[in-house]
Amino acid sequence: MKIHLFLCVSQIRELIIKVYRELVFFSCLFVSSISCADSIWEFINQKEHPEILSSIATADNVFVKLPIRIPLSYLTSLQLEDQIEVKINLDTSITFLIRDISNFGNGDTGWNAANSSEEGLQTISMTAGREHFLASIITAENSFWVIANKLTDQDDYIGWIYSCLLYTSPSQRDLSTSRMPSS
User: Cα dist. 32→26, 27, 37, 84 in Å?
Assistant: First the structure.
């Protein structure tokens, strides 16, 4: 009986070591895949560029708005199949793979990227022009927009990443059932 118990403890110990090694291996793969991607923008202090940030109009129903800097030098270095990181708030980022790059006749450049997560397809579309940078990020949970103006003395854009309260207009069926009774 003691020998059998010893074998069970030994087998359990080996199993624990094997599981631990696999967890370490997979966590290293996960961390290394995240660290490969550079972020498209960085968060900045709103006090650094108050005049440019205050000049940018955003939607009226914004409930989260964070100031960002977008380096044009990084944008112009992007290639097809590059992995990019998009920070949607101070604690959360999404990694995308660039699927398409468009060069427009007016000098603007556009990038489209996507990934598939457990929640579904996530996409980002970005356009950089002579004066403005625009982006939209669509996830299963929310949508985010970026609007930024180019600094006159640098090849960087300064602007906002923001999310709005979503409003869905009622369907015709909902409108017909929600009428007030006539008196």
Answer: 10, 8, 9, 13
Query: Residue 16 carries which side chain, given as an amino acid letter?
Result: I
Contact 86, 40 (CB under 8 A): yes
User: CA-to-CA distance for 93 and 64, rounded, in angstroms?
Assistant: 15
Q: pLDDT tens digits for 60-76?
A: 888 889 999 999 999 99
- The more confidently predicted of residues 13 and 4 is 13
First to last CA, the chain: 87
Please give the structure tokens belonging to residue 35: 């660290």
At CA 178, angle to CA 176 and CA 179, rounded to 5? Answer: 75
- State the pTM of this model: 0.70
* pLDDT (0 to 100) of residue 74: 95
